Amino acid sequence: MHRKHKAYVCTAAAVVLLAGGPAAAAAAHTADAARTAPAAAPARADVDAAAAVAAALKKYPGVVESLDKDGAVWHVDVIAKNGKHAELTVDTRSGKVFTENADNTDDNSDDGGNKAVVAAKVTAQQAMKAAVAAHAGQVTSVEWDDDDDNGSRYWNVEIKSGDKTTNVHVDATSGKATVSGSDSDGDGNDDNN
Question: b/e for 142-179, b at 16 or more Cβ within 10 A?
């Protein structure tokens, strides 16, 4: 039976060569090699700030108050429309979201607290886009900030580009982005001072 199998294979190869010539034989060999070669591993991309925000908001709908990358996780603070607050963690590799803490009370502080973030015309996502448009790089943190002295409200966005971290303030009403400082030596102090 083994001889008959070889005879059929040889006959089939001869027919391929006669019908399609050397190109058909090469294509058959390439297809055979592709079937036996191990599949290439897909390139793994870490979850970026925008994807972390999207994942967090899918799990806990509301508005983002802050976002910060800490090693292999993103910490995302979300405020629901009713003022309730949740602290979420998003894994940078898998995108899985874990609830660290969710409280059942809203913030009724004198300055408006969570209500100001919920009412802001510019969201954290919009602030990230404006900041990256003003200074190219990867967002590493976003934080709501309301300056009690002059009543201004803005988003502070940190952008990393190479070994340099740049702070960009984005006005919570107009969306205007202003580069406020950078730190290229990692000491936490602005190099612009």
Answer: bbbebeeeeeebbbbbbbeeeeebbbbbbbbeebebee
